Amino acid sequence: MSVSRSDSRVGVWLVGARGSVATTVVAGCAAVTAGLHPPTGMVTESPVFADSGLPALTSLVFGGHDTLDCPLPKRAEALAAGGVLPPGLPSAVAAELAAADREIRPGGPAAGDTRSAEELIAAFASDIRDFVTRCDLDRAVVVNVASTEPAPVGSELPASSLYAAAALRAGCPYVNFTPSTGLHHPALAPLAEASGLPWAGRDGKTGQTLLRSVLGPMFAQRALAVRAWSGANLLGGGDGAALADPAAAAAKNAGKERVLADTLGTVPEGEVHIDDVPALGDWKTAWDHIAFDGFLGTRMILQTIWQGCDSALAAPLVLDLARLTARAHEAGLSGPLAELGFFFKDPVGEGPAGLTEQYARLTGFAERLRGAGQQTVPAPDAAAPGSPGPGVPGTPAPGGATHGGEESE
Hints:
Layout: E1 10-15, H1 20-33, E2 60-66, H2 72-81, H3 89-92, H4 94-101, E3 104-106, H5 117-134, E4 139-144, H6 159-169, E5 174-176, H7 189-195, E6 198-201, H8 208-221, E7 225-235, H9 237-243, H10 246-264, E8 272-276, E9 283-293, E10 299-309, H11 310-330, E11 335-336, H12 355-370
Parallel strand pairs: 1-2, 1-4, 2-3, 4-5, 5-6, 6-11, 7-8
Antiparallel strand pairs: 7-9, 9-10
């Protein structure tokens, strides 16, 4: 277990706080801290992070934004009925779910919302600051786990970028676990650099792309020529519905293709298809078909099938990222946390694309945090008082925000 100051309290502000991933994060953290389940899938609970000063799981306090109004306890019951959460867990951690639900505030922009981008950012930042003050937190990390949004058109800030700007204004580190724009909007880049805050992202790597980041280097290192790499995803629930939008699916697939380009040194023929199958709920099947050449041009095929529960794959990584980013903030680090590329399809900063090399950088980061000591960093509610807006006039992108969980693979 990683050590932390006994009096430390760290907020985890989830954008998309009533979705499947966020609900699993809250329920899972409560289950692990109560000793009901082991921390399976949590990288930060492995021995390499011992004594790195990460905040204890018991110190995490949850809140967030969402446009949905289904309470977390009821959402957890639905996930248990679908086999995502263990039977009986929602009732066992009902108090923790209810406490987190009380800290969820209305998100946006909802359909018909007439507030400007500046007004929305100010409101979101105020919600985050109030959370820090009300819960007596040392610091808070904002993590985007909302549904994938289409890439923006024009200069308007999409919903994910409004929340990212609000995190900066509230003085909070930011993690984008989705392929949505977030801090990648050009209008926010100078603000992020000037904020003195650490940030990480983008697009959590939990399934099909995780496997690609292992297999891609294997083919390159064995000097095997990949001729084509095609894939398919079948998934349901809100994520399947969100990714039925071709623009949202294109944003998701860009990261999958980037991993192959970075590990193979070229982009092979083929593409990934995403199909919405509502009956699958939170479960997904990902299939890859890889055509490659061996010695003397012998043609061969590798096929893989990944069947997994998206929320159960993503939730432990969200907890890992919240702890690592909070610790980086405490240690006085700022800017893109490239060492966290292990967790993402499209990592910020410079770094390798292969999983083995990414893991080596992550373990180096653990050592860096271990030697960083405790730094004095302004609390979020005290950071940049009266700071100006994002410097981007205009209104939010049309269509409103879609929250309620992120498909990440």
